[in-house]
## 1
Amino acid sequence: MEKPKVLVLLGSDSDLGVIEDGLAFLRKTGVPHTVDISSAHRDPEKTVNYAKNARQEGIEVIIAVAGMAAHLPGVIASHTTLPVIGVPASGGILKGKDALYSIVQMPKGVPVASVGIDAGRNAAILACEILSIKYDSVAKALTELKTDLKRENEQKSLNIRNKLSS
Ligand code: AIR
């Protein structure tokens, strides 16, 4: 993998905190990606161009982070046949419920896969799961993630059993 495989678009620079853990996960997994700001409302042409050109640029999955009237993932999905993962951002006065509903309630025929509010890391993991169909190195990294999660769970189990028995 040399060229970016994941395109990460944010509705605004104020969304960056939502995706930082996700970007760290992509880096750790060795997945080349590109990040930019592209508001579906403030610069619709730029957003549409990104969506229309992504496949021919070699992008395989798109992550779109947006808050409030979060139309970015849906607009992108309207202009590409690549999988689009939406991340609702909690920045607005309705704390992300507005963005969640905007992202998840897509019309028939134009799906967007939504993760939870502010769940940027899960978006990156889901993007990697899609890429893992094709890339063995990504599949291996995800297997390691599952092992880590299991170890953490076992530690929590041990901790709580020790606490309750003392
Ligand atoms: N936004 C930007 N253009 C369209 C939308 N829905 C969202 C951004 C951000 C929120 O509006 O994704 O979550 C606030 O943006 P800003 O630039 O005012 O901080």
## 2
Amino acid sequence: MIRPWWETGVIYQIYPRSFQDSDGDGIGDLAGIEHRLDYVESLGVDAIWLSPIFPSPMADFGYDVSNYCGIEPMFGDLAAFDRLLVSIHARGLKLILDLVPNHSSDQHPWFVESRSSRNNPKRDWYIWADAAPGGGPPNNWESDFAGSSWEWDAATEQYYLHAFLREQPDLNWRNSELKAAMFDVMRFWFERGVDGFRIDVLWHIVKAAAFPDNPVNPDWTPLMNARDRVFQSYSTDQPEAHAISAEMRAIADDYGGRVLIGEIFLPNERHARWFGTPEQPQVHLPFNFQLIENDWNAERLGHLIVDYETSLPSFGWPNWVLGSHDAPRIAARIGESQARVAAMLLLTLRGTPALFQGDELGIGKVDIPAERVRDPQELRQPGRGLGRDRSRTPMPWDCSQNAGFSTGEPWLPINADWPTRNVETQGADDGSMLKLYRDLVGLRRAHSPLNAGDFALIRASENVLIYERRGGGKHFIVALNLSEEVRRVTLPNCEVLLSTLSGVPEPGMLRPNEGLIVKPTS
Ligand code: ISL
């Protein structure tokens, strides 16, 4: 049986503002991405997921869409998009776009109409509600970016719902016309040739019809993110959203060979339901963020990998995400040496791995001076470590001006160590993170059990994680030392295929921060 590309492949996330600028405005664009496709291909990855490229006022950097069927002028136009897609396909790569169906921009013509009067035909395309009987918002729902989810509209004297910024009003998926319009958006891009969608906050798209108050979180303190004041029990993960997810899948299946990825943050059991059933499948890959969300120690990781594997339905294919434009960079979180171990983990687990641009260079902590902060989440709750700019800084390509990213002033600062940490320098260095990533992706491609073989945990103790991958009569062992000390390990006679460190591994030991992929010989 030939397995589909989204099972065998590796996904590479590009944040378009920060990949490559071609016109000197300091912001990346589609022509810039096209110019860098040789690099993407050289990583050995199979698919590009592009964060949103649609027209947008950029209140949330593209996650506030004002036209779902166009291209943001600062990124290019439909002709530039078509050229990019042709170049991507010519290299045998796939392109996944970011669909943002939960909310639009408040500048979208749909919302402009919806808010124009209570009688407007598009009024019900968004979620409007009267004030609470005593005045104030209809319920206690909190926006993800601080403050009530409800915004008062003085002209029509109702509140509208926004799970994120007030500039991102939530669409009403209970309205059949809205639903049909968004399904047409999917068809528009499928017909243009895109290979799939990553669906933004999919578990948010339907809300409990009567808008009950969310349960209050008794453990919340003012030092925590304001949105965690309440649990999102009634504002997310409603049964009706699963039916919509199944309809989206049916549309994708009409075209063949396309993939749907759901952005879904939920505990395992509820997360797994987004696969749907064999008769009524939903998304192919409900994205699994557990490597991002959990502490970095072997015991924790061992448990969560086994728990996740156990939670999957028999037909469900796993996936693992190590970084994104929303999360702190892995090397900033656990240090560069462990980021090498993390790369080995990501690329030797069962399922589809997703990596985020720049992590393959080991970009670590980037300090963003207060006057250059752009992330609306950070600007609304400063000083809480919520800033997402730090993972969105431009790609450092070479030693030329602005690291080869742009001839103009980059929209965010570049990592301070760019003169040494850039693609050109690392490409010429056998000990670099980039070389490690290329080797790992290459090894994974050469040995299919590293992608699809059975997973068995051998050890998760003393901060050492050892597991085996078996399939097609082949057998590999991955041994990861998450500690900074030498650790004794028991491994069979084996050939070492790759170490995260240079030099020769010592038999029966893992050096500090060492990860090994070995092939037993007896
Ligand atoms: O709820 C979370 C984790 O439990 C958040 O991380 C939340 O899911 C996340 O912020 C949603 O992200 C996506 O939608 C946002 C956008 O700002 C992000 O960039 C995008 O990835 C609104 O569209």
